[in-house]
């Protein structure tokens, strides 16, 4: 795929879109060919056909899409091509939509630079999820892209988050150290954090140390997190939340009506979001 001209999206534009659509919904495009409707398997590119139908049916309800790269890499070269077609389709047809490469990268600086080029320059994603474990020099190559966002894993939605992230080092939980330390690397226009929806009771403290940053919040839907609980302390003056649901939306039906069923699920969340936004 050749690089094409594309205007990168700032957080201010993201906030504008949130207010226009009355939505801070992110739809996760985690495509599993064992779960897509059988008739799509006859398509030349079933993954892209599935994504296109979901995007066309839900783009007015969501402000962001988040393909998790594992679901594409698992199908080898063909899967990677489906990912390329998906991001190109989003950028060309819905340029207002915010895009997240959920790739959870991060390596020595020289290698992180290549990851950053892959997802920001070549694929033209607006943002990427990055693991902070290797420290500042592994994250800075992503932050050097001025109009792109780096989304650091802070407190993840899974049970294993308690293995390291909530453990104390010198009296402070590791996830707090990640947030506090990284705040000195770049400003809130370039830096966001992942905080799981299943960890709603932590949002108050997280907002104390990261009042301005956007938080990407996966775990609503299939993992059982509550939108209302997250919003109680997670919202900030710019809304500041992107709530992701993947399986709960895209696999609402495995029948021919899968895209309409996905739109209904997205609509349920958007309606709840509108009610919340109307009150602030
Ligand atoms: O970075 C992520 O997006 C992420 C972080 C996290 O703590 N928990 C988490 O579930 N995710 C991702 O968010 C998506 C959640 O999918 P569902 O549980 O199907 O809604 C998957 O792509 C996960 O890999």
TrEMBL record:
Pathways involved: Pyrimidine metabolism; UMP biosynthesis via de novo pathway; UMP from orotate: step 2/2
Catalyses which reaction(s): orotidine 5'-phosphate + H(+) = UMP + CO2
GO molecular function: orotidine-5'-phosphate decarboxylase activity
Enzyme class name: lyase
Domain Orotidine 5'-phosphate decarboxylase stretches: 24-262
EC number: 4.1.1.23
Swiss-Prot/TrEMBL GO biological process terms: 'de novo' pyrimidine nucleobase biosynthetic process; 'de novo' UMP biosynthetic process
Keywords associated with the record: Decarboxylase, Lyase, Pyrimidine biosynthesis
Pfam families, per database record: OMPdecase
SUPFAM superfamilies per UniProt: Ribulose-phoshate binding barrel (SSF51366)
SMART domains recorded: OMPdecase (SM00934)
InterPro entries noted in UniProt: Aldolase_TIM, OMPdecase_type-2, OMPdeCOase_dom, RibuloseP-bd_barrel
Keyword Lyase recorded: yes
Keyword Lyase: yes
Family classification: Belongs to the OMP decarboxylase family. Type 2 subfamily.
NCBIfam families cross-referenced by the UniProt entry: pyrF_sub2
Protein name: Orotidine-5'-phosphate decarboxylase
